[in-house]
Amino acid sequence: MDANAWQQILTELRAALAAEDFRRWFGATAYASDSGDQITVWVPTESVRRHILAEYHRELRRAVSAIDRPDTHVRFVVAGFGEDDEDDDEGDRA
What we know:
Layout (H helix, E strand, L loop, with lengths): L4 H12 L2 H8 L3 E5 L3 E6 L2 H10 L1 H10 L6 E6 L16
Parallel strand pairs: 2-3
Antiparallel strand pairs: 1-2
């Protein structure tokens, strides 16, 4: 079975980041969905979501391009919250 898009992105990130950074910030993420133009990923906490977006935006864009999906956005959603509970489109995409 083929890996989902998030697994492919994680493979690219694993190669680009220090092992500890990858484990700390991406180890607890989980694939939620892929609508074609947006990949949704669950993260465990709001602080992890904010850190990923602030510190790894460039690496994420490179990884998305590397899997031949340059126009796809990655959206991070804190697990346990509905989308209406998030500040929906304000800074939650990479």
